[in-house]
Specification:
145 residues, 33% strand
């Protein structure tokens, strides 16, 4: 996959990793991930996205740790987390293994895609009225006031 550039952004090849887990597992899993790779994007690190909780549906079959069951299970409180990794096989393998070891499931749902992702060229946005720091301020500071 080949990247490209616009005047403000470079689109670069990266790996997008997505996993599903109970919400209460996410901090433990992400601690294991950032111990391997900082998940940096520009002047930020620990970059990831976590969805709102949803309901996971599955039925354990023969060989499942829970044992085979006839009824469908519906587990609420499961989220999806995604983050970008450098396009490096060794890092990807270490991160996937760390997720597997930190995850509570016998068969964690882990997906990996190669995509193009934006990287700002760091232009001066001091006069752009659409930037939060030029208009509304920081959402976190406003929420704690």
């Amino acid at each position: 996959m080949t990247g490209f550039e616009t005047s403000s952004v470079a689109m670069v090849p990266i790996r997008l990793l997505t996993f599903q887990a109970p919400a209460e597992d996410v901090d433990r899993i992400m601690d294991a991930v950032v111990a391997i790779v900082p998940l940096a994007m520009g002047p930020y690190d620990s970059n990831a996205y976590q969805s709102s909780p949803g309901t996971e549906r599955y039925r354990p079959l023969e060989g499942a740790a829970a044992g085979a069951e006839s009824e469908l299970r519906k587990r609420p409180g499961v989220v999806e987390v995604c983050f970008e990794l450098p396009d490096a096989q060794d890092v990807t393998e270490r991160v996937i293994e760390a997720i597997f070891q930190a995850h509570s499931y016998q068969e964690p749902v882990i997906r990996l895609q190669t995509i193009l992702s934006s990287r700002s060229k760091g232009l001066d946005d001091g006069k752009n009225p659409n930037r939060w720091w030029n208009s509304r301020g920081d959402w976190k500071k406003a929420a704690s006031a």
